[in-house]
Amino acid sequence: MTKKIYVIYTGGTIGMKPTDSGYAPSGNMQALLDEKLPPHVRQGLPDFDLVEYEELIDSSNIRPENWKQIATDIAEHYDDYDGFIVLHGTDTMAFSSSMMSFMLRNLNKPVVFTGSQIPLCEARSDGLENFVGALSIATDDRINEVCLYFNGRLMRGNRARKQNAYLFDAFDSPNFPWLGRADINIELSDYLLLKPQSQPEFHLECSEDTQVGILQLFPGITAQWVEAALNQPVKAFIMRTYGTGNGPDGDQALLDALKKATDDGKIIVNLTQCHRGTVHQGSYAAGSALSEAGVIGGLDTTTEAMFCKLHHLLSKGHSPEEIRVMVGQNISGELTI
Fold it and tell me: How far does CA 291 lie from the centroid of its chain?
């Protein structure tokens, strides 16, 4: 039986058209795909139904309510299709694919995010290859998770990061191997793929209010600056530190500000500023001081995945104590234990 794919068009570069203010989201994606994929070409591709959201967005405008819309849409159509594709802007695609991995768990079919660096309306667009590749990936029975496919690379959705604004190789997976590669043939690393442990679980809770902030260390950062940041009305913070998770252990006032925040119930997770690497807070004294201040090591989780994981756990009503434990637990393949 021919497989059928559900395609969600949320906006993003792939469907943009030029305006006086620059490229902007544009509708009628179905007509654009029909133009690029004439009937004799479509015959060799899986069938698909495309839904175009009424409010198309540049992904720089993504908000938690958009994540809830996408996850709910997939959950409601889950039994009717063999796989799913989300056409999404590249700027925050790694955030959205990460969030879907927490909201849609134990899947037994693929959910594939893709988009383009150049709009489909342009002659040199990479959008068609990405879309056709994603269609092939979305029919593969071996894939049972949320993925991100771009320029031939198949990556776990919560391991991918946007690494380049100018190359077609826009995404990479710095702390985890690619799941596969599409060249003449599609080659998958079966041993890396998630295997469903139970029936699919749809965790659709997603607070509309942002629950997480990001604090980046920099040379000369002061306790007053840190304290002002931690006083923002969010419940959890990602602190992006140096190297393997180090911070200025010579500034006792700064450490006291962190300790006060964690004692007051704020969740602070330590992630490295390095593109590739993992946090080991005990490797250096500068990291151990952060641990003593109540900061939790986030291991090799990406910033995008940790942001979404914290938002997800808070949306589900977990307590700070529970979340501090769950930060180090592998929920959807987002970290290496």
Answer: 27
pTM listed for this prediction: 0.96
Q: What digits encode the pLDDT tens for the residues 167-225?
A: 999 999 999 999 999 998 999 999 999 999 889 999 999 999 988 999 999 999 999 99
Given the residues 90, 241, 244, 302, select the one marked as catalytic: 90
Q: Which of 13, 114, 139, 302 is catalytic?
A: 13
CATH number assigned to the domain comprising residue 244: 3.40.50.40
* Alpha carbons 115 and 128: distance in angstroms, whole number: 9
Does 335 reside within a domain? no
Check whether 91 is labelled as a binding-site residue. Answer: yes
Question: CA separation (Å) from 310 to 93, 158, 314?
Answer: 17, 13, 6
Instruction: Name the region of 119 (left: φ>0; alpha: ψ -120 to 50; beta: rest).
Output: beta
| Closest to 35 measured CA to CA, from 116, 92, 109, 120 | 120
Q: Which of 145, 179, 202 is the last residue of a domain?
A: 202
Annotated catalytic, 13?
yes
59 is in an annotated binding site: yes
- In order, the DSSP letters of 186-232 are EEE-GGGS----SS-EE-----SS--EEEEE--TT--HHHHHHHHTS
